[in-house]
Amino acid sequence: MKDNIAIVSALKSHKIKVREPIDERCWAYMKLMRETHATKRMVAVNPYAEVYQLRDNLYAILSEHLSGAGDMWDYLIIGPQKAMLIDTGFGVGDLKGLVNELTGSMPLIVVNTHAHPDHASGNCQFDRVYCHAYDVPQLEQMRNPYIWDVLFDEEGKPIWTEFDREDIVPFHKYEIVGCPDGHTFDLGAGHEIELIHTAGHTAGHCMFLDKKHRLLFAGDDVISMRISIGAARPDSPFGEWATVTRYRDQMARLAARLDEFDYVFPGHFVLDLENEVILNLLDAANAIVADPQGFDYEDAFETSAGVAKRYHKFVKGLGTLSYNDKTV
């Protein structure tokens, strides 16, 4: 197993250590893409982001994970009249300025796949953010100026990734709009993006379907290394949705719509996956629900409450679904 510390990059951030080794296949993919992809570029307004143009109207924006996990992909879709930014990263560096430069300052819709710091801490650079309704309570807890404190030790030094604290864009209280499953956003001239509730990783985790270009933006419910099921906060009123069972149910609904999309873009690691990955995820989730003790291996990981046990089920052609006794 390797991590991606050795990847050559012009990013202003620099990794110090990681929480867990990155799967060597994911590491190799990221190293190759980040060092050789023909469209990769840096934009001066934000030295914490690498920009890749994956389609004529689609950019992937990569930034380093600031608390020791896998680096994140945000996505920018350019529509005829509006653009959509899917996820906002950790909020270090001028993401809004970068997006404006890429779009020519088009009107922008900002959405979150889920309410985790590595995908939503940059929300405060914008005035309004949309998400699925079940993740609104968690986003509201994150909507405060102290969310970056956990990235530093008692002496004020970064713990996981070296970066300049002055490059955190000042906190700005933004509006959170919770949406129902199936809500559509119009980027103009009938270019619609649909919010699809998929649950699992968080209670309100959702994906975004670009109907015109047949692309699915999957957040952390599809990852080539490990998909963690059951990350709801203990006080979440919708915690039952952060389970393998609910994830299985939602993925079954998504599997019935494979004729609507061709490629899947996850929130971390390998992207541009073929749509059959949804069927493989459904198979693994079904196996877990049928026999929770039929996992392929187990390990332990640190939480705020101590060390916890975690089970893993292999997903064909991808990685694993991870869960525990309480999240089936």
Could you characterize what this model shows?
This protein is α+β, with helices and mostly antiparallel strands and 328 residues long. It has one domain (14-293): Metallo-beta-lactamase, Chain A. The chain contains 6 helices and 20 strands. The strands form 5 sheets. The protein has a 6-stranded mixed beta sheet with strand order 2-3-4-5-6-7, covered by helices on one side. Helix 5 (244-255) packs antiparallel against helix 6. The longest helix is centred in the C-terminal third of the chain and has 14 residues, at 277-290. The model has no long low-confidence stretch (mean pLDDT 94).
Order of helices and strands: EHEEEEEHEHEHEEEEEEEHEEHEEE
CATH architecture: 4-Layer Sandwich
Mass-distribution shape: globular
CATH-defined topology: Metallo-beta-lactamase, Chain A
Termini separation: 28 Å
The average pLDDT is 94
At the fourth level of CATH, the homologous superfamily is Ribonuclease Z/Hydroxyacylglutathione hydrolase-like
Which class best fits the helix and strand makeup?
alpha+beta
- Strands ordered across the widest β-sheet: 2-3-4-5-6-7
Number of domains: 1
Q: Helical residue percent? A: 10-25%
Global Rg: 19 Å
> How many helix segments?
6
Poorly predicted spans:
none
Which CATH class is shown? Alpha Beta
Number of strands: 20
Classify the beta-strand content into a percent band.
25-35%
Largest sheet: 6 strands, mixed
Summarize this structure as a short list of keywords or feature phrases.
six-stranded mixed beta sheet, globular, 328 residues, alpha+beta, 20 strands, 29% strand, Metallo-beta-lactamase, Chain A
